[in-house]
Amino acid sequence: MTSPLTDNEINNLYSKRKQQINVPEISLDNAITEQPVKAQPVTTIRLKRSSAIFFSSLFASFAIFALITHLLPEKTIDKISQNKSIKTIPVDLKALSTKSDEAVNLPSPPSLKIEAPIEKIIPPQIKKLPSEKAIVPQVATPKSYPLNLAVTLSMPTLSLGQSTPPLTFKSLPKYPHTAAKKNIEGKVKLAYTITAQGNVKDITVVTATPAKTFDRAAKIALNKWKYQIPENAADDWIKEGNIVEFNFKLKN
Amino acid sequence: MKLPSMMKGWFNPNVKPELLLDKYAQSGDKKSLAKLIEHYNRDLFHFLLSQSDHATAEDCLQNTWLKVMKNAEQYKLGTSVKNWLFTIARHTLIDELRRLNRWHTRALSEHDLSSLTLSEEVIKKDSLTLFNHIISQLPFYQREAFILQQEGFSLHEIAIMTHEKQETIKSRIRYAKQNIRSTLESKL
């Protein structure tokens, strides 16, 4: 604790850190060809400064403000230009993306390209990373999605042992989102015990295809089931070895 | 600093991001969008990168701008563009992390990482590297609050953006800074 760090120093470190990173370029299809965008702020500021000096001969107080406003941002830009990873030289954007070997710590990014038809707002023609392709249809219809599932879930087929007390409450499992997204269907067979209170306990998975995908959802649902227990049943009455199978199916 | 930055836009209306986005929303002018991207790409990417890894950050950055293109007309003139963009980026990131099942997975491993290990000697040399290291060790929410504050958002704005109370944000920032300070001072 020799010299306490001031907020300024933290701010400094923060801005240095920011300059250090290599930003992937977002290039709009043939949108930026005519003007090297990197050079944009510098040129506009230069222009503005000369105009501000001109004004200062006319309106002194007014121009002082103008100078302050325009010298301030320029200073920060000078600082930036001393830094390695930012280039203020007007280079073609595509040339820049190939020269990423100056990156300090972080791996060099591939130059991303979005070929988005900007006039139309619908995104289907967008060339994207393969991982995103899978999600796109779901993103398009987020609201109808869960509804679909509720309908398409097939009724559990009950294959119960003899003289099982009547069910008074039955709930169906929720279709797990991750499985639905990946279009996974499957079955879970559960064994369980009915207690004297009519509850379900000791749920174990007998078979599950695919493994572990639907276990949790099925268990949660089964745990809510209620049975009507015969009135003359003893307190320690239990019925073991009940089996139920849940079929998880998507409609389409 | 507030006044000059406000006046900057007043001198050259083309530079003001609010107007750029509005122009893009009205006319679909690609150049305004390109300028807007140029203006905020680094800020957004830095935020995303700090909160995730490189690949995820790139994905999110791309998705963020796609969302901006798609929803540009929903932007209301008079509100801050930067605020809007960061909100979109944040939501995109959280969605993506949830999709990858990595939402809040870091929280578990934070405890054992709090001390510097073998690389300590290397890290010691450079305060910037150390700073980066500390930032990467901060808990998710502290880092978020800290970065957003460094980006110039007020406590109130951050609170709205993250759906938290202002006091919560305040203390997150305080803890983040405390962490940074104590580690930096003890190592340098």
Keywords:
heterodimer; A: 252 residues; alpha+beta; four-stranded antiparallel sheet; two-stranded parallel sheet; 9 helices; 8 strands; B: 188 residues; mainly alpha; Rna Polymerase Sigma Factor, Chain: A; Arc Repressor Mutant, subunit A; 0% strand; globular
Q: Can you offer a commentary on this structure?
A:
The complex is a heterodimer of chains A (252) and B (188). Chain A has 252 residues and is of the alpha+beta class. Chain A has helices at residues 7-20, 40-58, 60-82, 93-98, 130-133, 136-140, 144-152, 177-181, 215-223; strands at 27-28, 113-114, 157-158, 167-169, 186-194, 200-209, 226-227, 239-248. In chain A, the strands form 3 sheets. A 4-stranded antiparallel beta sheet of chain A has the order 3-8-5-6, with helices on one face. Chain A has a two-stranded parallel sheet with strand order 1-2. In chain A, strand 5 (186-194) and strand 6 form a beta hairpin. Chain A is elongated, with a radius of gyration of 33 Å. Chain A starts with 6 loop residues before the first helix and ends with a strand. Mean pLDDT of chain A is 63; it is low at 30-45 and 74-162. Chain B has 188 residues and is mainly α. Chain B has 2 domains: 13-103, Rna Polymerase Sigma Factor, Chain: A; 106-188, Arc Repressor Mutant, subunit A (Orthogonal Bundle). Chain B is built from 11 helices and no strands. Chain B has helices at residues 2-11, 17-27, 30-51, 54-71, 81-99, 106-109, 120-124, 127-137, 140-150, 155-162, 166-187. In chain B, helix 3 packs antiparallel against helix 4 (54-71). At the A-B interface, helix 1, helix 2 and helix 3 of A face helix 1, helix 3, helix 4, helix 8 and helix 11 of B.
